[in-house]
UniProtKB/TrEMBL annotation:
GO process terms (BP): tetrahydrobiopterin biosynthetic process
Lineage: Eukaryota, Metazoa, Chordata, Craniata, Vertebrata
UniProt keyword annotation of Metal-binding present: yes
E.C. number: 4.2.3.12
Gene that specifies this protein: Pts
Enzyme type, top EC level: lyase
Role this protein plays: Involved in the biosynthesis of tetrahydrobiopterin, an essential cofactor of aromatic amino acid hydroxylases. Catalyzes the transformation of 7,8-dihydroneopterin triphosphate into 6-pyruvoyl tetrahydropterin.
UniProt KW keywords: Lyase, Metal-binding, Tetrahydrobiopterin biosynthesis, Zinc
Protein name in UniProt: 6-pyruvoyl tetrahydrobiopterin synthase
Organism for this UniProt entry: Psilopogon haemacephalus
Length: 157
């Protein structure tokens, strides 16, 4: 009798956090930054409100997906308590209610676009999760602006 096939599942968990930022590249002049980023280049930063009414400056919904084999004993792909702790450490502690450009060292040299926020979250989660299980990170800046990041991919893929 053949061994039963491994059952894989994709698990998603969402977290919401608030932060502010300014889109500004040190590689560009003030005039070039203003032309490229417009009102998002405001020297005092800017924010977004997303979905829920709140007093937040910038509200992001960040679902990410894990692909794992379902454990035949526990019936889980990962213990959700552990996953919640990983998300707290990788996302909430460094980003929630922060000025990304001033409070998060990663963004001292990296423009705090939603794309780069997704990369930051990916890299932070990769350090905590078992190797190879993180499938993608999705960051919703607004209802219209959504970034999906799946790690390093080449344009030929």
């Amino acid at each position: 009798m053949a061994a039963p096939a491994a059952r894989l599942a994709r698990l998603s968990r969402t977290v919401t956090f608030s932060a502010c930022h300014r889109l500004h590249s040190k590689s560009l002049s003030d005039e070039e930054n203003l032309k490229l980023f417009g009102k998002c280049n405001n020297p005092n930063g800017h924010g977004h409100n997303y979905k829920e009414p709140c007093r937040c400056i910038w509200l992001l919904i960040c679902p990410f997906f894990l692909t794992l084999q379902i454990d035949p004993v526990s019936g889980m792909v990962i213990n959700l308590t552990d996953l919640k702790e990983y998300m707290q450490e990788a996302i909430m502690e460094p980003l929630d209610h922060k000025n990304l450009d001033k409070d998060v060292p990663y963004f001292a040299e990296v423009v705090s676009t939603t794309e780069n926020v997704a990369v930051f979250i990916w890299e932070s989660l990769q350090k905590l999760l078992p190797v190879g299980i993180l499938y993608k990170v999705t960051v919703h800046e607004t209802e219209q602006n959504i970034v999906v990041y799946k790690g390093e991919e080449s344009l030929s893929e």
